[in-house]
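Workshop exercise sheet. Pairs work together: one partner reads the sequence aloud, the other fills in the structure field after running the prediction. Swap roles for the next sheet.
Pair: D.N. / O.F.
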Amino acid sequence: MNEKSPFINILPPQAATNSGQVDGLFWFLNFITLLFTLLVVAAIVTFAVKYRRGAHADRSNAPLENLPLEIAWTAIPLLLCFVIFGWGAVIFFRNANVPKGAMNIYVVGKQWMWKVQQPSGRWEQNEIHVPVGVPVQLTMTSEDVLHDFFIPAFRLKADVIPGRYTSYWFEATKPGKYHLYCAEYCGTFHSKMGGTVIVQEKADYERWLKSGNVQKSRAVAGEKLFRQYGCSGCHGLNSSVKAPLLEGIYGRGRALEDGSFVIGDDRYLRDSIYLPQKEVRAGFKPIMPTFKGRMSEADVLQIIDYIKSTGGAGGNSISSSDSNKGNANPYGTGAVGNDDISTRSGIAKPQGATR
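Structure field:
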């Protein structure tokens, strides 16, 4: 944890695969800023001395224009801006595209704590245990106000927004303990909203998962909540209420009453629970009640995991008796929740969508 940046030891340790890229851009920006600051200061001092009152400098026939100079001071900053933009875009898209098979950890921010759920279903508070060398996807949301999830050693900083899922990923490279902060003022005890990321060797992480109370997997816990909140009474096979079946819905296109299509992703499922009148499925009446204020964000995340486990274009089919069977990731996550980017952007027609 004490290993510092190779440039100057004023930065936190580099403990994730993308830390070096972020630091490289950071120092490049500082170098450019310092370089142009020195050039401007040097020009100011030179002209102030050369053309001071009483100096014998020739002030006759002052040039009114200098085309090469004007092109230079326009083109050089423009090219530098393109370099900075391109460099930053590469880092941004790399962080935004979650690798297939990344283990998915849920993070819920609330005043003033971080509530974290592992793929196995185990809950943590203000701590996140992760294995070294494994891509980890964070699916984050807030129960109340805007928070900001910040791990300096991983160069990871993302807004955690009420009513929206934010997704980022990282791959830790060094075992150790690293600070976690909320970097957005969120109320009276904002300064106390911190925590620790504990990076362990894979064997140590697996032992930690098995220690303490045995937890139900998120999908199994979600199935229990699905029945507890009465969702199965309307969306079950033998229901007397005409409501859409949710089996296999995840990642597939759904036609709406207004004629548009939507992908059955995390956002759609969450909004269907909290804002059921927002996107009504074609052929069904808007009769579902809202669960806003009745169901916590943590419960919603588990129910979404259960719906994912029933199959679909973006999720693995997981039986309730063994929710981890058949997943690509050894920690029972699989490639869940990563819809194809072309489908999300509208470039490709969603799977299962018909007109």
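Discussion prompt: Helices lie at 19-50, 67-96, 202-210, 218-228, 232-235, 266-274, 297-309, 341-345. What would you look at next?
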